[in-house]
Amino acid sequence: MTRPRFHLAFPVDDLAAARDFYAGVLGCAEGREMEGHWIDFDLKGHQIVAHFSPEECSAAKTGDVDGKSVPVRHFGLILEWDDWNALKDRLQSADADFIIEPYVRFEGKPGEQATMFVRDPAGNALEFKAFRDDRMVFDKGLRETG
């Protein structure tokens, strides 16, 4: 792979529950692991690592976006529109712990995007979004609204 990939390590309080969520619900392939300590997952080509560290698992602080309490500390992916919808259906079927239910922001406007926030079993917040027009991902005109 020639493009850069990001690496993210995050705390969990139950490695088996992390495996169930990341591999089972999200469909991430599993990579290396050190039993009882950490597990690597392939999140669409990016390496994320669940580290057993229960003392670091706590409720995230929130900020206001669109009148919703968005966890300040979160990570996730920007997906293609159809892939976002497929993941939404998969998460709903798995009775995922939604922090913010799936919805579309700025519908019919520049910057239109679908978004949803879920918690993994350790309380880590993940956001999955999709832009109707991928060119809007870094558009500075959206600073005021998105």
TrEMBL record:
Signal sequence bounds: none
Domain (VOC) ranges: 4-131
Domain of life (superkingdom): Bacteria
InterPro entries reported for this sequence: Glyas_Bleomycin-R_OHBP_Dase, Glyas_Fos-R_dOase_dom, VOC_core
Protein name, as recorded: VOC family protein
